[in-house]
Design goal:
- This protein is an alpha+beta fold.
- The chain folds into two domains: about 1-95, no CATH class; about 95-195, no CATH class.
- Helix content is about 45%, strand content about 15%.
- The chain contains eight helices and seven strands; from the N terminus they run αβββββββααααααα.
- The strands form two sheets. It has a four-stranded antiparallel beta sheet with strand order 1-4-5-6, with no helix packed on it.
- Helix 4 packs parallel to helix 6.
- The radius of gyration is 27 Å and the shape is elongated.
């Protein structure tokens, strides 16, 4: 009985202490905060560099937090995107996901878009397999936009791979010089993509 009363007394003291505690404060952020208006190309300028934001924010005022290694962009208190911080006058960090709807409306602009050029492996796939059907490329991208960019690239690489088709042909037909040359071309293409492909944020 005594221990029970003691425990109740301790609980009462804890409740009294809670009344005198200072309010919780979020962790201190070492970021420089500024207000930036999104330009007509869906970029915000931070120092001398440009960072893409979702295309629906053109003309809107955003809040930008600049960290030593990262840029975070907010709109209506919601984080809309983040980029690795870049340096240099006029350099751009482009996220192709920010432009998919615009590119769907103007599929002819896909080939020369900065967004696609910023991802060499994906650009190589587009040039090889989708140059004459850019709308299909963007539609397939939109269907899989929930995937991170590395998985998007893998999706398109698997979709456009033709190695299996030639293996099946070789089972029923003798290997011709055309098949041999085609296999060599595919092998060289894979080496080129693996050695020189890269994804920038």
């Amino acid at each position: 009985m005594y221990s029970r009363l003691l425990k109740l007394n301790e609980n009462s003291k804890m409740e009294d202490e809670k009344k005198h505690l200072t309010p919780y404060r979020p962790p201190l952020e070492l970021a420089e905060i500024s207000s930036n208006k999104v330009d007509t190309c869906s970029f915000v300028r931070v120092d001398t560099a440009f960072y893409s934001v979702p295309e629906g924010l053109v003309g809107k005022d955003t809040l930008v937090k600049k960290y030593h290694d990262e840029i975070r962009v907010f709109y209506s208190n919601d984080e809309v995107c983040r980029h690795r911080r870049i340096f240099g006058n006029g350099n751009m960090s482009v996220n192709i996901y920010h432009y998919l709807n615009t590119l769907l409306k103007k599929p002819g602009a896909v080939r020369n878009s900065v967004a696609l050029k910023s991802i060499p492996r994906l650009k190589a796939i587009f040039d090889t397999h989708y140059a004459n059907k850019p709308r299909q490329f963007i539609e397939e991208f939109l269907d899989n936009k929930h995937l991170p960019i590395d998985e998007i690239i893998e999706f398109f690489e698997k979709k456009t791979a033709v190695k299996g088709e030639f293996t099946a042909i070789s089972v029923v037909k003798p290997i011709t010089s055309v098949v041999t040359e085609t296999r060599a071309f595919i092998a060289n293409y894979s080496v080129l993509i693996n050695n020189y492909g890269g994804v920038s944020e």
